[in-house]
Amino acid sequence: MIHQTLIQTAATSSDSDSSSEGYATLFAGLADRNPNLFRRIGLPLGDPVAWIELPTGNKIRIVRDLEMDRTRAAGTDEGSDRVAIELGSVFCPADFPPNEGELSADRETATAQAVTSCLLKEGVSRVRADRTLPLIYAWHVAAAGIQIDYDDQLGVMDRRVKTADEIASLRQAQHVTEQVMLQICKRIASASVDDDGHLIDEAYLLTSERIRAFAARLFMDRGFTMSHGAIVASAPYSADCHHAGTGPLSTGVPIIVDLYPRDESTRYNGDCTRTVVHGTPNEETLRMHAAVVASKAAGEAEMYPGRTADAVHKAVIRELEAAGYKQHRGELTDEASIQHGTGHGIGLEVHEPILLDDGGGELFANEVFTVEPGLYGRLTGGVRVEDMVVVTENGPEILNELPMGLDWL
Questions:
Q1: 3-state class of 342 per DSSP?
Q2: Is residue 405 part of a domain?
Q3: Is the CB of residue 38 less than 8 Å from the CB of residue 32?
Q4: What's one Pfam family here (predicted)?
């Protein structure tokens, strides 16, 4: 059950303000998979770890013994504002043995036991945790009689507003994403055509799978990974806006290319979509593309601090509906229709709160979003264009530089 008073406090204060409330704050799990934990440990460790802020304000990191020295050395560069969180002192599970019995030989269980022992040693009777806390930690802490409160804004608000260094990392990630996007769109646009209208490149049939593999190699050469895959899709698969695409690519039809890799040096993500047509697009594709580009501009024009994600989305929908397209969310259609919201936050994860969608809340200065309106149909194919946008006091700052057209020759 959500503790309402705690959530109201978290919504108006930073994560480090919990000490004045008498709570300890707990993050735990795998730092290489949990961005909230990664920011507090300082390294993307693959073994179980925990971060505790005590009611006194002191912070503790619990990591595997062989990771202690490396964790102590982890931190922000001198003068960096990438992560405005004190990392805290470093311990290992053996530093907090259970009151009864021994530490488990299972690393995750041992870390959960150590967290519980640490809290008991410090006289903590109540902790707050975020949405990512694994059940094993919650079970051990609760079994020791310590109350756990779920705070739905913990680990969310501090990541929504980006520092200058974080924005620089996102800018670089998007720049590299666009470098690869340009090569992919040019490769598709310049391919040959066989007798069936399928694209051929160097005597090989050009398929969605082949293009994704090509993208993966290009990103790997640049120190990026495609851990979530990529989309290279045309009709009929592009009627489903998240279908990765499969099979041969054809001339004359729109092909959606959506790339969202991670920069392994910073762990920040790029996310860019362009639509490419080999040959000459038909009139409906041109009409769809014009409506999508216009709706994107209308949504971006709303992206000022104090305005809402709901207003951004509604501006996009008004433009698309004025062009004659209808919403059919959750229902694939033959003719082009509106299938999804306008965009999402981005940072250490590709999809971060908040959504640019119906009911979306207030925008803050230095939040970063993708803006990606699209139209999709089984017969018409799909068109989507996506850029990364920073909300600033002076209006939207678009981090993309690539053109948005259909012709890439």
A1: coil
A2: no
A3: yes
A4: Peptidase_M24
